[in-house]
């Protein structure tokens, strides 16, 4: 069995009204909505890969949040096992520049709406985990947290 590894992040920003938004990408190949990610290159660690891929695909510089690291495994094709490591990153700016070769569309969406837009169940679960992480005192103001039903 062939093994592949990618790293990326759920990238978020906070608006003036204390709303949290996630950055979603529509991938040119496959047409699915998800998060910035890509293959680990020789000599890179997981964090370096995630930061490079975010910069390449979106033009953004992000600050990865300590304590959030989630792994997703799946089989994209027969005899291939893929592991993707996701971090949670705060966008230091919000002016995106999409990578035309791989990304057909980029969109900031309210964190409560994001689960209905992403394509895969694994991504919906990641959004739920990121929402809990952010609103349990690690990032945003806990009083503005969406309920579990909304997330």
From TrEMBL:
Similarity comment: family membership: Belongs to the Nudix hydrolase family.
GO molecular function, one term: nucleotide binding
Stored PROSITE patterns: NUDIX, NUDIX_BOX
Coiled coil segments of this chain: none
Alphabetic keyword roster: Hydrolase, Nucleotide-binding
GO BP terms in the entry: AMP biosynthetic process; ATP biosynthetic process
InterPro entries: Nudix_hydrolase, NUDIX_hydrolase-like_dom_sf, NUDIX_hydrolase_CS, NUDIX_hydrolase_dom, Nudix_hydrolase_domain, Tetra_PHTase
Record-linked Pfam families: NUDIX
Domain (Nudix hydrolase): residue spans on this chain: 2-131
Name of the featured protein: Bis(5'-nucleosyl)-tetraphosphatase [asymmetrical]
